Amino acid sequence: MLSLFLLPMIIINSGLITSSAMLFILYIISGLGMAGIGMGIMHDAIHGSYSTNKHVNKYLGYTMNLIGANSTVWRIQHNVLHHTYTNIDQTDDDINPPAVLRFSPHAKKYWLHKFQHIYVWFFYGLSTISWITSKDFVRINRYRKKGFFTKKNE
Q1: What mean pLDDT do residues 17-28 have?
Q2: Integer Cα distance of 47 and 45 in angstroms
Q3: Distance CA 26, CA 35 (A)
Q4: If DSSP codes are grouped into helix, strand and coil, which group holds residue 137?
Q5: Can you give the pLDDT at residue 20?
Q6: Crossing angle of helices 20-36/2-14, nearest 10°?
Q7: Where in the chain are the domains?
Q8: Distance between CA 90 and CA 107 in Å, rounded?
Q9: For the chain, is the Cβ count within 10 Å smaller at the N or the C terminus?
């Protein structure tokens, strides 16, 4: 997955490819590698299940940083908050999306939500951009205020 992500990016940034179609294909391949890093390597490593060696898990967890997010923030959000408070409104960030999306029966329902199955794919596509530009910064400040960060993990 790391090669699937990195090699196309190296080729793209080398300037050797000028064909728009080939650049598009390389971006698609790199995107598949990015998804594989997130869903395979990073997820399992931060859960401590990629390897029996905790140091291997620690360093492979940092692949989250490679694809544009913060592994420490994700560990708190996913391992601590999501798995401790799964599907509990206002505590599990996985079910507290922006107002245009509704993942919980406790969230306020708007007329637009009946079309969510159609437009959710567009918002999922934008979620990576949101994640690497603002989401982690907002979360790190919130988690710091809640006392999740100590000198050890900052």
Answers
A1: 94
A2: 5
A3: 14
A4: helix
A5: 94
A6: 150
A7: 1-67, 72-154
A8: 9
A9: C
